[in-house]
Amino acid sequence: MLAIFKKEINQFFSSITGYVAIIVFLLANGLMLFVFPDTSLLDYGYANLDPLFDLAPLIFLLLIPAITMRSFADEFKGGTMELLGTKPLTGWQIVMGKFWASALIVGIAVLPTGVYYVAIRALSATPGNIDNGGIGGAYIGLLLLGAVFTAIGTWASSLTANAVIAFLIAIFTCFLFYNGFDALSKLPIFTGGWDYYLQMAGIKFHYNSISRGVVDSRDVIYFLSVTGLMLYLTKTALQRKMWQ
């Protein structure tokens, strides 16, 4: 697994695509949080990073599929998947090596946003007067969201040899999991109790909950369960393709 992990990291940063993806993520966040007036932290009125945690999931919808789309698609396209099958590696080792490499890249993209925390802390009317616990919990929620999206993107890449198709499948599935259930719950047919359960089935409900700074075990279990499910589906899809 470690060999695949290192290979994926090296492959990602061996081309300009990897750097561009991370730079675009940080640039988009920077513009929205400090330049565009409608979302600027400087016009927010008080010192917190709520706009960051509201905007980051939408940017993740494009960033993470771009990171994961080549995970398995390029292996299928280049014919190297058969070579991996001859190595002393289990299906889980292959899947987890790919997943953790992509998850690390997502973490690297999120890490520089700590500069925004330092800036807001320094710019607050009373320096240091900021909800550290709430921001810490929100960052945990953001990383868990990144793990779920990464697992979905890895699964999408295991379905096809075309990286563009994998990218589109990942975007659609991430959007469905994040916003689809919440949108369905607002239909009149589901009012009267079912709307709440539909919201609970979606990522947005649990992300909003944990982004308030309260790390509830139920939300953590949800994120880990969805991540595990998507990785299991990835392993199943991979085995099916290798048998063919």
From TrEMBL:
Pfam families: ABC2_membrane_2 (PF12679). InterPro entries: ABC-2_transporter_component, Motility-assoc_ABC_perm_GldF. The chain crosses the membrane at residues 12-35, 55-73, 94-118, 138-156, 163-181, 220-238. The gene is gldF. One of its GO terms (molecular function) is ABC-type transporter activity. This is Gliding motility-associated ABC transporter permease subunit GldF. Keywords: Cell membrane, Membrane, Transmembrane, Transmembrane helix. Signal peptide: none annotated. The keyword Ribosomal protein does not apply. NCBIfam families: ABC_perm_GldF. It is found in: Cell membrane. It is a multi-pass membrane protein. It comes from Chitinophaga parva. GO terms for cellular component: plasma membrane.
